[in-house]
Design brief:
Residues 219-233 have a biased composition (Low complexity). The chain has helices spanning 33-40, 43-46, 50-55, 61-69, 74-81, 85-107, 122-132, 185-191, 246-251, and strands spanning 5-9, 15-19, 26-30, 110-113, 116-117, 141-146, 152-160, 163-172, 179-182. It is an alpha+beta fold.
């Protein structure tokens, strides 16, 4: 196997120029991840396919911090870069502290309403809104990350029953704690006291009309037990008509004996 000797770098910066035993024979070697892995002695990456290498590229410390600052988690980056989680944590730690501090400052900012900044801070407004809805304001999770426009997005997470809820705000640091504006409907419900809808609308239960006049239930009286009707009084037996004797008829004597 002939040996090659590196003689320079191509003008495109992507190839190494080499030559063999015969100086007239020139070779170009493309500089890629496989070559870098071979130079480092990284046999694992050397045995990977080109597609795997291009997809799972090694993140630099600057790239790690930039992605963490934009909202990525340590676990996400470690999985995407196929890197050891301890390496990601080492560079992510100061940025995570920065995000935590931004979220803490945002809770002391004043929400901007239709008529201007509110007197209450964001934390006070959120606490009041949750208490009025019967929710626990002590179990809240605040987070923040920086957008491409260098502005901060603040996220509030809380539970209502078994459901997980999120609200997002735009945080602008400034005098007197700075200001926050609602970035979605859930955030508007939390900070705007005139917002008509509730945080988690519940279907109304049909109301019973307890004021309706109760109509008495009329029941027919139970029939009295049948009794044997009294028998009509036995008619007095008719006496046979008295047949007057012939002398009475002749003399005009009445049957009663009166004349």
């Amino acid at each position: 196997m002939p040996d090659l000797k590196v003689v320079g770098l191509d003008v495109d910066g992507r190839h190494i120029l080499c030559e063999g035993d015969d100086p007239t024979q020139k070779y170009r070697l493309r500089v890629d991840d496989r070559l870098r892995a071979a130079v480092r002695g990284d046999l694992v990456r050397l045995n990977q396919t080109q597609i795997d290498i291009e997809v799972k590229s090694v993140l630099t410390p600057k790239e790690i911090q930039a992605r963490i600052r934009a909202g990525a988690s340590v676990e996400q980056l470690a999985q995407q870069a196929d890197a050891d989680i301890s390496r990601i944590e080492r560079f992510a730690h100061p940025v995570l502290l920065e995000r935590s501090r931004a979220a803490e400052l945002a809770t002391a900012a004043h929400p901007v309403l239709a008529d201007g900044p509110a007197v209450l801070t964001l934390l006070e407004a959120v606490t009041s809104a949750l208490i009025s809805r019967g929710l626990n304001p002590d179990v809240l999770n605040w987070d923040a990350w920086r957008n491409e426009d260098s502005r901060w997005t603040v996220q509030l997470a809380w539970k209502a029953g078994k459901s997980d809820n999120l609200a997002h705000f735009r945080f602008t640091p400034g005098a007197h704690g700075g200001t926050v504006t609602a970035a979605d409907e859930a955030a508007t419900e939390l900070i705007d006291p005139s917002f008509e809808r509730v945080l988690r609308p519940v279907a109304r239960v049909a109301q019973l009309d307890f004021d309706a006049v109760e109509h008495p239930i009329v029941t027919e009286p139970a029939p009295e037990p049948a009794t044997e009707s009294p028998r009509p009084a036995a008619r007095a037996r008719k006496s046979k008509p008295v047949v007057p004797a012939w002398e009475d008829v002749l003399l005009g004597v009445r049957s009663s004996g009166d004349r």
